[in-house]
Amino acid sequence: MIIPSPPQGVWEIGPVPIRAYALFVVLGIVVAVWWGQKRLSERGGAAGTVGDVAVFAVPFGVVGGRLYHVITDHHLYFGAGRDPLRALYVWEGGLGIWGAVALGAVGAWIGCKRKGLPLPVFADAVAPAIAVGHAIARLGNYFNQELYGAHTTLPWALEIYHRVDANGVADQLNGVSTGVPLPGSPVHPTFLYELLWNLGVAALVVYVDRKQRLGHGRAFALYVAAYTLGRTWIELMRTDPATPVFGVRVNVWVSILVFAGALAYYLWARKKGPREVVSASPTDSAADLPHPTGARPRE
User: Fold this and answer.
1) CB–CB of 136/127 below 8 Å?
2) Which of 84, 103, 175, 224 could form a Cys-Cys staple with 171, CB 3.0–4.6 A?
3) Torsion angles phi and psi, residue 187, rounded to 5
4) Phi/psi-derived region of residue 151, left when phi > 0, alpha when psi is between -120 and 50, beta in every other case
5) Nearest to 279 by CA among 49, 55, 51, 110
6) What is the DSSP letter of 19?
7) Local structure of residue 93 (DSSP, 8 states)
8) Are 131 and 227 in contact (CB under 8 A)?
9) Angle formed at CA 178 by CA 177 and CA 181, multiple of 5 degrees
10) β-strand pairing of 248-249 with 244-245
11) How far is the C-alpha of 29 from the C-alpha of 187, rounded, in Å?
């Protein structure tokens, strides 16, 4: 059994290109916001909070993800024969998860500040939702025929095909399959490995959170540590060009460092006590709440 790649990843509707990669990224965001709000509401958070925070977090995350990708894979955009403007073409794929998380956290902090919600509370609520959203977004890589590993004959091997545009010119991103496998195909579908790993991470975070009532950012730290653990070995399997650091792909080093930091925070945050109590109206102050006797509390 061999998994076939989709015949194309872009469909033209008049002058407008519809890209599978963008659709799955958007779908992942929608699912993450929906489930993140559900989890936050279960903890007493106000309705609509995650969507309001996402207005800041998502744009920041997209910019951060693209910056990380361009910096770590600069050889794709700069140098002889390269077009630097393509660094802006987000729709062609290329969003680094750690840039997205780092700058997305800045946007989330701004949104949480405006809502009067502690950032760790928000992060704990959306942690497994981000993992699932990331898994959904990985389907876009399937349509783009990217993020795969070396040749394999395993039953779940992925067949990748030569694609051409309307003029018969090779175009792996925007073209249509000719049905002719590329050299080295079939290959390890590492995007699929990461997709499945992310779903497992989400399940782990939910399970541990229910058992231990994680708070103070520990659920988010668990998500980060578990994800990076898998990303390390998956990254080592990939064969696409990447910037090496001491002979190892840069994302491997980043994953190791982030794993260590997340694990350290997870253990340290245990000292911060029980899970935070969340008010359904976090912006309300005690002075604005009705007093049981009808009198206002003393200042």
Assistant:
1) no
2) 175
3) -135, 170
4) beta
5) 49
6) E
7) S
8) yes
9) 90
10) antiparallel
11) 29
CB–CB of 3/158 below 8 Å?
yes
- Give the Cβ contact number of residue 89 at 10 Å: 13
Cis peptide bond N-terminal to 290, omega within 30? no
Residue type, 235: E
Helices (H), the chain: 20-42, 49-72, 97-115, 119-144, 190-212, 218-237, 250-268
CA gap 274, 212 in Å, rounded:
9
Look up residue 141 and give its two tokens: 């890589």
Digit-by-digit pLDDT tens for the chain (299 residues) are: 789 999 999 999 888 899 999 999 999 999 999 999 999 999 999 999 999 999 999 999 999 999 888 888 877 888 888 888 888 887 676 778 888 989 999 999 999 999 999 999 999 999 999 999 999 999 999 999 999 999 999 999 999 999 999 999 999 989 999 999 999 999 999 999 999 999 999 999 999 999 999 999 999 999 999 999 999 999 999 998 888 889 999 999 999 999 999 999 999 999 998 899 887 654 443 333 444 444 433 33
Query: Whose structure tokens read 């951060």?
Result: 64
Which residue's entry shows tokens 């249509």? Answer: 176
Tokens of 20: 């599978």
